[in-house]
Write a structure and sequence with these properties.
heterodimer; A: eight-stranded mixed β-sheet; 8 strands; 15% strand; B: alpha/beta; Rossmann fold; seven-stranded mixed β-sheet; 22 strands; Thiamine pyrophosphate-dependent enzyme (chain A); OFOB (chain A); TPP_enzyme_TPP-bd (chain A); oxidoreductase activity, acting on the aldehyde or oxo group of donors, iron-sulfur protein as acceptor (chain A)
Chain lengths: 310, 631
């Protein structure tokens, strides 16, 4: 008998199960790349046999943060930049949950970059999708951490003097064990990559290029795109080759060439949960289950800790 | 000198073993049948820097550090950096000696390590001149030499304990027993040899003092605990199995106790990248069904402001701990203050909807942390335990049976899957987690992974299943429902027979003293002294900061002619809160404030009371009186 039967029982699901049956309909602008993330995520979940109530989707703030409103599952629309610490605690508390975090490039590479780095290095078994549109959209078009150098906006009227963040390289250096880039304009690849990322036993980071037709008209529609697996010869399990490939993809993006695909994959690296269980600092059974199991007696402080104070 | 109490102080540099020695000394006296209390003074530094711990022992009911002290064991600072008294921070090697001159009571005893501090140095600080003026009894002992000969040089502290035992008439068997328990093996043997050699040498001295350890006898076995122990043990007994934090003095004590013990209790401790993450992880774990906590001190707690508001809005239960130290900013990291009250009550945008308890001693720390978990999980609200460096670090003897409690694994207001199948859902099957119809403001929640429980938690205002909503009527409903929790919690607290407020003194006294948090028991000691010499005073120690205990404080203030409000800050924050909550009594309340990093001594409260009621002048020192409204 489990308190969480959504996790432990077999379910057949389809795309519609992950679509809210009533309002709200997405409020994203027509032509927005965010629709593609929603569609790919909805497609990947049934492909992997997941059901809405075993999925915990934690989002940040911005247009991307609305993903949890339009995707049917347990959702947590948190605060700007803090989706990752909430999501990874959820995974620690109940490893049976399929945990996905999502946010924008400002959310993940700006205000929440510290959490991005540390969640990656800890290699939590979860998926992190960053909607990268190179702009702050919901606040109406300010320069973001991935905006190209020289990008003009209301807050950078003379053009940004900063080089953009290199998200893939940052992810690799931080310790993510699966790193990919896909684009809204490539829905087939997007769904495959999301499915792979979810299946991956470790921290999987997807830099998802999502065009903003309203506030970033200068940016390309992320077409044409090139799949690095088809056009380049590199070994994505080799850290050095992956780093070179990432550097090239990040540079080319600002030259108008969109390189997508799988950039890095580290197999056989234990996830954080496995590491913590191996040092005896995390219980074998899901912690959350203990509170809902009547037979699980909680130990008394009096029996274990008071003797040393006498 | 009376034989009714002993205040022994050990002073040295950080790294000279001051903490461990004082802990053993306190425990030995506790085992000998005395009630003990310690006061800890240390710098924000790893090696060197003047540090001391004071142990007060008496046959019964020790409530505070007391006034001054009687016996100084000065080791000197073996890690001293500054060579002479021209240096900015003074002559560090000698600080553990001369810095105590102002506090040592008349007739007191000084033992110093003449192996480290030579005659010339003693001359420089006028030790013998001061001793004559104050009738002190000085015993130079080559502790370093004793330690070298019978053990190792670092055992200077043990040699000092042996000398203290001989001069005070303490049976060394208590120390031997403790050394065997704590150290074991060769180290214990060497320490015991040093202890006894020092004891024998000092027993031969010509004892000119009449100070000795009092005799006592306990009715039941005692445990030596700190406020941090009280908080951590209550969390474990409350079924808390998740902590996330980032080190910061003085909150680190609670974080350490939890991190060391959670694996044994089947839980998880996470040290994370910053306090924003720390609070967010606790919220994430709690949302997923685990009882969780986090905490910090002032600066770290400031980083938790936004997650704290998220927990209020998403109605995620969480317990946070705030260990105050002197501010603003980095302030004085190892010194106590009570200046974060307003910060903790109001930080984060929007109207505050949280529980805040400020316990006054280790037992209250335990009781109120347990209540914090109960209210957090029953009402889906953040609950904060606010304490300070003083309460967190001071040790007290408490009857061991106090901890004979049952653990609580109840996750609070959570529905089972069966209950969820009967609960209200929207047309698409989403659970109405934020239904308008909560009882006492509470809608029992679901936990991710439960069948039939899916909903959206959001920091935005939301409608019943969690979708973002800016509809004015929905907004009013949801705000009112959330705020109703505070009214319900106040009613619950009032209905219970174990108020968090502590009353002390004769009920019909003419004058009152209001106090909160760690200064409470010092005030209670002062109240006893005042009444003994003919004043008519009572005190109320307040712990409920939010929701405020309106009826208890009103009754107290109505019953007195005048009231002194004692707190360790510069802006009379608790008095301000009381006036805001009660809307009157301004002309009755005079504040006695201190914010120099040193907690009040009972005699200072007595002086403050006299200055207020009898309109005498405050004698020197760093206290300040803030007149009542209209005065």
């Amino acid at each position: 008998m489990t308190a969480f039967s959504a996790i432990h029982e077999e379910h057949e699901s389809d795309k519609e199960d992950f679509t809210p049956g009533v309002e709200p309909q997405p409020t994203w602008c027509p032509g927005c790349g965010d629709f593609a993330v929603l569609k790919a995520l909805k497609g990947a979940m049934p492909e992997l046999g997941r059901s809405p109530e075993e999925v915990m989707l934690v989002t940040g703030i911005g247009c991307s943060g609305k993903l949890s409103s339009y995707f049917e599952s347990y959702g947590y629309h948190s605060i700007h930049g803090r989706a990752l610490p909430i999501a990874r605690a959820s995974k620690l508390a109940n490893p049976g949950l399929e945990v996905v975090a999502a946010g924008g490039d400002g959310d993940g590479y700006g205000i929440g970059a510290n959490h991005f780095m540390h969640t990656a290095r800890e290699n939590h078994d979860m998926t992190y999708i960053v909607f990268n549109n190179e702009i702050f959209g919901l606040t109406k078009g300010q320069t973001s951490p991935t905006s190209p150098k020289g990008h003009k906006s209301k807050t950078q009227p003379s053009g940004s003097a900063k080089d953009p963040v290199r998200p893939l390289t940052l992810s690799l250096a931080s310790g993510a064990s699966y790193i990919a880039r896909t684009a809204a304009t490539n829905p087939r690849q997007a769904q495959q990559i999301i499915a792979e990322a979810i299946e991956h036993d470790g921290f999987a980071h997807i830099d998802f290029l999502t065009q903003c037709p309203t506030w970033n008209k200068d940016a390309k529609e992320y077409v044409p795109y090139t799949d690095v697996q088809e056009e380049y010869d590199f070994d994505k399990t080799d850290r050095r080759e992956a780093a070179d490939m990432m550097y090239e993809a990040e540079t080319k993006l600002y030259e108008g060439e969109v390189l997508t695909g799988r950039f890095f994959r580290e197999e056989n690296r234990p996830s954080y949960g496995q590491e913590k269980r191996s040092t005896g600092e995390m219980p074998e059974d899901p912690l959350a289950e203990r509170y809902y199991d009547d037979d699980d007696g909680f130990e008394r402080v009096a029996d274990h800790l008071i003797e040393r104070h006498k | 000198m009376t034989g009714s109490e002993l205040k022994w102080r050990i002073a040295g540099g950080s790294g000279d073993g001051i903490d461990s020695t004082s802990q053993n000394f306190a425990k030995a006296l506790m085992r000998a049948g005395l009630d003990v209390f310690t006061h800890r003074h240390y710098p924000s530094r790893i090696r060197g820097g003047h540090t001391y711990v004071e142990v007060r022992a008496q046959p019964d009911d020790v409530r505070s550090r007391g006034d001054g002290f009687d016996f100084l064991l000065s080791l000197g600072d073996s890690f001293a950096r500054n060579p002479d008294d021209e240096a900015y921070y003074g002559e560090e090697e000698l600080k553990p000696l001369y810095e105590h001159f102002d506090d040592l009571n008349e007739g007191g005893v000084i033992v110093y390590d003449s192996g480290l501090i030579d005659d010339e140095a003693v001359e420089e600080i006028n030790l013998y001149e001061r001793a004559e003026e104050n009738n002190w009894h000085v015993y130079p002992v080559d502790l370093r030499g004793l330690a070298r000969e019978h053990g190792r040089e670092v055992m200077r502290n043990t040699a000092g304990v042996g000398v203290s035992a001989a001069l005070l008439g303490v049976d060394t068997s208590y120390f031997e027993e403790l050394m065997q328990e704590v150290m074991g093996g060769d180290i214990a043997e060497a320490n015991i040899e040093t202890l006894n050699a020092a004891y024998e040498q000092a027993a031969e001295f010509d004892h000119t003092h009449d100070l000795e350890v009092p005799k006592g006898d306990h009715d039941s076995e005692q445990a030596l605990v700190t406020g941090s122990d009280g908080i951590a043990y209550a969390a474990l007994d409350s079924g808390c199995r998740f902590i996330s934090g980032y080190p910061m003095t003085p909150w680190t004590d609670v974080f350490t106790i939890m991190s060391q013990n959670l694996p044994h209790f089947g839980g998880i401790a996470e040290q994370v990248e910053d306090e924003i993450a720390a609070a967010s992880l606790a919220i994430g774990a709690s949302h997923t069904g685990v009882k969780a906590m986090s905490g910090s001190s002032g600066g770290g707690f400031a980083l938790m402001s936004e997650p704290l508001g998220l927990a209020e809005m998403t109605e995620t239960p969480v317990v946070l701990i705030e260990a105050m130290r002197a501010g603003p900013s980095t302030g004085m990291p190892t010194k106590p203050e009570q200046a974060d009250l307003e910060h903790v009550l109001y930080t984060s945008q929007g109207d505050s909807c949280r529980v805040v308890f400020a316990p006054g001693n280790p037992q209250e720390a335990y009781e109120q942390t347990r209540k914090a978990f109960e209210y957090a999980y029953d009402y889906h609200i953040p609950a904060i335990v606010l304490y300070d460096q003083k309460l967190g670090g001071e040790m007290r003897s408490v009857p061991a049976e106090f901890f004979d409690r049952e653990p609580d694994s109840d996750p609070g207001a959570v529905l089972t899957e069966d209950e969820l199948s009967e609960a209200a859902h929207d047309a698409a099957g989403k659970f109405k987690r934020y239904s308008h119809d909560g009882e006492d403001g509470v809608v029992p929640r679901s936990v991710p992974g439960q069948e039939g429980g899916r909903f959206l938690a959001t920091g935005n205002e939301s409608q019943e299943v969690g979708h973002i909503s800016e509809d004015p009527d929905n907004r009013k409903h949801q705000m009112d429902r959330r705020m109703e929790k505070l009214t319900s919690i106040r009613e619950d607290l009032n209905a219970g027979d174990d108020s968090n407020q502590a009353f002390h003194g004769p009920a019909d006294a003419d004058y009152g003293i209001l106090v909160w948090g760690s200064q409470q028991d010092t005030v209670f000691e002062a109240v006893d002294r005042l009444n003994a010499r003919g004043s008519s005073v009572k005190a109320l120690g307040v712990s409920d900061m939010m929701p405020y205990p309106e009826s208890e404080v009103t009754a107290f203030l109505e019953s007195v002619e005048e009231c002194l409000v004692v707190e360790m800050n510069a802006t009379a924050q608790f008095r301000g809160l009381t006036q805001k909550e009660l809307g009157r009594f301004g002309p009755k309340m005079t504040s006695l404030l201190k914010y120099d990093g040193e907690p009040f001594e009972p005699s200072e409260i007595v002086e403050g009371f006299e200055a207020t009621v009898e309109e005498t002048d405050l004698p020197g020192g760093n206290m300040e009186l803030r007149p009542a409204a209209g005065d």
